[in-house]
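Figure 6 in text form: structure in, sequence out.
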């Protein structure tokens, strides 16, 4: 039997930031009940009291406080690396451009700290590298296949312990912190044990501080 509690839990779980607000105690039960009352009634197809919704929210929050992703803890294996002075170049994905990307590692000096990532999508390829290599990278592609260029970027990389790969909510935990601080993410690039956020350079210092606090939080 579907109950008010089931519907309230369903609604809240569809909105991760609402869960976070509840666990932090920064949302008013009465105001939230007002906000979702019509939705609960529509789901149940019958009238529901405001008090019943409030009670369901209170009981759900008791479970969230012990089960929500906020309990995830970082450890000393997590590290934070920031790179400045980057550019993002996006080109059409075709045979010629795929071949051109194979030449890009020759343009950069990775052992000396140069930055290069290549992301192949279904219809496009995105290259992120140092601003100083912008011209030489663009010379590898026909001008009419270059669809977008974003300058003045920084990369914030988090190294991830392997045991985090089986931890639900890790990516949400990190992106949530940036969103709460109103920091826009241009791109997310990931490998098995690295998660890199591409940001506007003006946002990089705040993002570094934000994620550093998250990693060191006890």
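Output sequence:
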């Amino acid at each position: 039997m579907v109950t008010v509690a089931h519907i309230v839990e369903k609604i809240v779980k569809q909105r991760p930031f609402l869960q976070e607000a509840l666990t932090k105690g920064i949302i008013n039960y009465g105001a939230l009940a007002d906000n979702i009352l019509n939705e609960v009634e529509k789901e149940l197809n019958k009238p529901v009291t405001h008090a019943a919704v409030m009670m369901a929210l209170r009981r759900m929050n008791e479970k969230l406080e012990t089960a929500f992703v906020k309990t995830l803890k970082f450890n000393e294996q997590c590290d934070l690396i920031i790179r400045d002075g980057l550019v993002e170049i996006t080109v059409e994905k075709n045979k010629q451009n795929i071949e051109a990307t194979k030449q890009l590692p020759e343009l950069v000096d990775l052992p000396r700290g140069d930055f290069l990532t290549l992301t192949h999508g279904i219809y496009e390829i995105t290259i992120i590298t140092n601003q100083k290599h912008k011209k030489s990278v663009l010379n590898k592609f026909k001008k009419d296949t270059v669809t977008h260029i974003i300058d003045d970027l920084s990369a914030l990389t988090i190294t991830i312990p392997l045991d985090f790969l089986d931890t639900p909510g890790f990516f949400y935990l990190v992106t949530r912190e940036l969103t709460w601080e109103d920091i826009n993410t241009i791109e997310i690039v990931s490998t098995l044990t690295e998660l890199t956020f591409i940001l506007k350079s003006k946002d990089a210092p705040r993002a570094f501080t934000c994620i550093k606090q998250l990693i060191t939080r006890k």
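Caption detail: Residues 4-68 form one domain.
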